[in-house]
Specification:
There is one protein chain. By secondary structure, this protein is mainly α. Among the domains are: 86 residues, Cytochrome Bc1 Complex, Chain D, domain 2 (Orthogonal Bundle); 92 residues, Cytochrome c-like domain (Cytochrome Bc1 Complex, Chain D, domain 2), CATH 1.10.760. Helices cover 57% and strands 2% of the residues. The protein is built from twelve helices and two strands, in the order αααααααααββααα. It has a two-stranded antiparallel sheet with strand order 1-2. Strand 1 and strand 2 form a beta hairpin. Helix 5 crosses helix 10. The mean pLDDT is 85.
Length: 263
């Protein structure tokens, strides 16, 4: 103890203790700052959520409510996930002025960055299906055209037509054509079930099976029309009936014209 007391009375003890204290304070501050400091990814996500919230308040809250709780003419968006927003807004179906009829695909109102911001904001409200990334959409690698065709005929053809050209449903609704639709939007429609479409969960169709369906749709889209005019590829019976009625009508018109000329 006496030896320590001697060191404490030394001239250099006060500056040394000051340096040690400053070093301790600086180290503690750096550790605390590193703990609470946001990473660039977290900061970018927070900025996207805030941007999406402002876009939502300006363009969506009139129908869906200020807190996305839904309203008289629009459903709640809490828990629908980013995939649903990316599908609806990315395909131009939302925003929409008239909710009484089926919402059709049109030119998007928002650009890709704004769509991503809206999706990030809605996803921040509650868990839901996420937007599939490029790795999850590699249907060329993980999909099978043959399996996809069988799955499509069993699960999709009754509404979208056996060739994916779309078809009529009840009460004036319809299943849209799948030709020209981005693989991402097809996948999102499968996992979110927009409008009259059912939800195909991973228990109903595995991710690999979904990719097979997409691969078959893209193969059908690229298939050449060797027979000439396809007339929507609605099938030989309907196409034959159209040709028969049209051809018979032309023959009747010619016969009437010849009869009138003979008189």
């Amino acid at each position: 103890m006496k030896r320590l007391s001697q060191y404490r009375r030394h001239k250099a003890s006060a500056p040394l203790l000051l340096v040690i204290a400053l070093l301790g304070i600086g180290t503690t501050f750096n550790v605390a700052s590193a703990t609470i400091k946001q990473s660039p990814t977290t900061f970018a996500r927070s900025a996207a959520i805030e941007e999406g919230k402002q876009l939502f308040l300006k363009g969506c809250s009139t129908c869906h409510g200020l807190n996305a709780e839904g309203g008289a003419i629009a459903p709640s968006l809490i828990g629908v996930g980013a995939a649903s927003v990316d599908f609806q807004v990315g395909t131009g179906r939302m925003p929409v002025a008239d909710m009484s009829t089926q919402i059709s695909r049109k030119e998007p109102v928002y650009n890709e960055e704004e769509v991503a911001a809206l999706a990030a904001y809605v996803a921040s409200l509650a868990p839901g299906p996420a937007i599939p990334n490029e790795e999850a959409l590699n249907y060329e690698r993980d999909g099978s055209t043959a399996e996809g065709g069988e799955l499509f005929r069993n699960n999709c053809a009754m509404c979208h037509n056996f060739a994916g050209q779309g078809g009529a449903l009840t009460q004036g609704k319809y299943a849209p054509t799948l030709m020209g639709v981005e693989p991402k939007h097809i996948y999102e429609a499968l996992i979110t079930g927009p409008q009259s479409m059912p939800v195909f969960s991973d228990k109903t169709l595995t991710p690999e099976e979904k990719l097979s369906v997409i691969k078959w749709i893209k193969a059908a889209e690229a298939e050449p029309n060797l027979g000439g005019a396809t007339m929507g590829r609605v099938g030989p019976v309907t196409e034959g009936l159209l040709v028969w009625v049209l051809g018979l009508g032309i023959l009747i018109a010619v016969a009437v014209w010849l009869t009138s000329r003979a008189r």
